[in-house]
Amino acid sequence: MDKRLVVKSNFLIEASYKLSAIEQKIILSLATRIKKEDQEFQKYSFNLGELSTFIGLNSNADYAYLQEVTRSLLSKVLILKNENSLLQTHWFESVEYFEKTGTVTMRFSPELKPCLLHLKENFTKFQLKYAIQLKSRFSIRIYELLKQYESIGSREFLLSDLRTIIGVGPDEYPLYGNFKAKVLNVAKRELRAKTDLSFDFEEIKIGRSVGKIRFNISQQAVSQPKKAASPVRKTNPVVNDSEIQDLLPLLPKPYRDKLSVRKMLQEALSKHDLDYVMRNIFYTNEKSNAVNYRAYLAKALRDDYGLAYMEDRQSRKEVEQLQQKTFAEAERQKQHDIHQIDQERENRSKARVFMQSFTPDTMQKLEQEAMRRLSPDALERYNNKHYTGIFEFKRKLEDVVMEHTGIVKAVNKPEQAAEAA
Q1: Which strand (E) or helix (H) includes residue 396?
Q2: What's the CATH number for 135-225?
Q3: Whose CA, among 31, 121, 267, 419, lies 20 to 30 Å from 363?
Q4: 256 Cβ neighbours under 8 A, 6+ residues apart
């Protein structure tokens, strides 16, 4: 697989979509199976073990997770815009698993033919082996976008356009400093360490804030990586947010936001693969209780209690069913959270529309109410015209308008106001 090429139209590379790193790697792997002579997309076949290992899932215990990932991909919508239309389509037409042979077949949606089949111009190609090593979903997208301009040597984006194209949500890293640390600098380190490209970037201000990013692209030779002493251990790993985010839904809800648990998972991932950490989470979920959960998890991760636990299950089928149930529950919780985020975004959009119709007197009263809800620190930042204070004031104003118009019930009870702040 080391010499396989991904060939994608520039139109598809520049499309805006949000996929996890694993989802992107599955799509890239499938794209390498397309042959020049293919007139239509075929059902391209993969050995489950080889595919799982290649994209970073390390054992049979991950098959249930792989099924959840492809099921999610089947439901995700890709939006392609051109001068004459806006196309809403799916990535895959079908995914089929064959348990007896340990294989899976996948076929792209026929609507993607112009983006992947018989490309003669306006396309970009790169070796799969580089993109497949990247852990951050944003690093993969940035690699594709810079590979497209490799021969030119530089590429410039409006910051807002870059966020949209690589799939950074409106509520992800709203402050530029966080975006720089978690997206740009992570991609810079990963590409330099693992691919045939490296880059530096310049911050171009529009007004007083960073409004554009200019990437300066360099080609680089890539040395052959040394084989690890053990296929299970990781060497010099870089644990990023996306790995932790894959594991958090498996934890009991009260522990997902605990810094101590996150540190525990980070330390375990720096020494072991995903399967090792997963099986010890499953073990702890069943054997511990709410009082001793963290201590139980720490011991399980240290001594791998989950290994014997998985081996002692009555059958492999029982283990798969347990994992399927866990991931299904995690997916239901994820969809619930997404629905809540989408609902809040819609409500705030409605509030902004209402504001345009209010009289100046009404707006003055609403702004005064929003000001009263700011914490003393936020009020001071707002009075000093600091961008964080202005942002907090706008959010409070939207809250007030949503209540005033009946979009939502009042949220200015003391405990709710404190939580919102």
Answers
A1: helix 387-405
A2: 1.10.10.10
A3: 419
A4: 248, 249
Tracing tokens 């706008």 back to the chain, one arrives at 394
The first and second tokens of residue 93, run together, are 């037409």
Q: Please say if the pLDDT value at position 236 is more than 50.
A: no
CATH code assigned to 1-132: 1.10.10.10
Band (pLDDT 50/70/90 cuts) for residue 420 is very low
Return the pLDDT at 166: 93
User: Mind listing the pLDDT tens digit for each residue in 85-139?
Assistant: 888 899 999 999 998 888 999 999 999 999 999 888 889 999 999 999 998 999 9
Task: Tell me if 279 sits within 8 A of 320, measured CB to CB.
Answer: no
Please say whether the beta carbons of 245 and 137 come within 8 A. no
Residues 6+ apart with CB under 8 A from 369: 400
- For the chain, give every domain's residue range: 1-132, 135-225, 241-312, 344-420
User: How long a stretch of residues is the chain?
Assistant: 421
- Tokens 């949606």 found at: 109
pLDDT tens digit sequence for 344-376? 888 888 888 888 888 999 999 999 999 999 999
C-alpha to C-alpha distance for 35 and 22, rounded to whole angstroms: 23
At what angle are helices 316-355 and 387-405 packed, to 10 degrees?
A: 90
Q: Say how far residue 410 (Cα) sits from the centre of its chain.
A: 33
E-strand ranges in 189-312 read: 197-206, 209-219
Can you give the pTM of this predicted structure?
A: 0.55
Evaluated on CA atoms 416, 419, 420, 421, the torsion sign reads: positive
